[in-house]
Design a protein that fits this description.
Elements: H1 9-12, H2 22-30, E1 33-38, E2 41-47, E3 53-58, H3 70-73, H4 75-88, H5 107-117, E4 125-126, H6 127-133, H7 140-148, E5 161-162, H8 175-184
Parallel strand pairs: 4-5
Antiparallel strand pairs: 1-2, 2-3
Helix pairs in contact: 6-7
Length: 191
């Protein structure tokens, strides 16, 4: 299996240039990635450093070992795992509790992601609403692109962004997962 295909394109772009082979890639990620088995599928979590995560994504074939020393090297992974346990058990938390460091977003993407983090659990906003909130009311399509480029699914809750007509729109983790996440949060899907 080609390990570079295990990760979404946005993560592969962040791999250092000197990591070129499957073996060096496995070595690089074995020291900063865990998988989390959720009720809606396997989630990969990447630590940016000891205190922040940089990526959270859904994956089908996650092949990395769960090394016990990751909890010591990257305590943020233990923290995020506990938050996900709470989330999938129906509990809530403020997305600001999640230490995120995303180094590759544009200024516009970061504005969109910050606006998305402010959407309360159980509520949704339209792409148009987000565009208006960040002061760029004509940038609805660009907001959609920024939402699609989100690197930290669930914690930057892009599943809470829907179309103005009330339909769900797209989701990087698949439309069924978006439906499941919104249902878990108590949002009543009408369309």
């Amino acid at each position: 299996m080609n390990l570079f295909q295990t990760f979404p394109e946005c993560i592969r772009k962040t791999v250092p240039i000197n990591v070129k082979s499957d073996e060096s890639l496995r070595d690089y990620f074995n020291h900063r990635v865990i998988s989390y088995e959720s009720p809606i599928g396997c989630i990969g979590i990447v630590a940016a450093d000891r205190d922040n995560i940089s990526h959270l994504f859904f994956t089908q074939n996650f092949t990395f070992d769960q090394l016990p020393d990751l909890q010591v090297q990257y305590p943020v992974l233990t923290h995020v795992r506990k938050l996900l346990d709470r989330y999938f058990a129906g509990g809530s938390f403020d997305t600001a509790e999640v230490p995120i460091r995303v180094d590759c977003g544009t200024h516009f993407q970061n504005e969109v992601w910050n606006a998305i983090r402010q959407i309360p659990r159980g509520e949704v906003r339209s792409y148009k609403c987000i565009a208006e909130q960040i002061g760029k009311p004509k940038a609805v399509r660009a907001v959609g692109s920024a939402v699609g480029a989100n690197l930290v699914s669930i914690f930057i809750p892009c599943h809470r962004v829907i179309r103005s007509d009330g339909t769900l729109g797209g989701y990087g983790g698949g439309i069924e997962r978006k439906r499941q996440l919104l249902t878990l949060e108590g949002y009543q899907i009408v369309k």
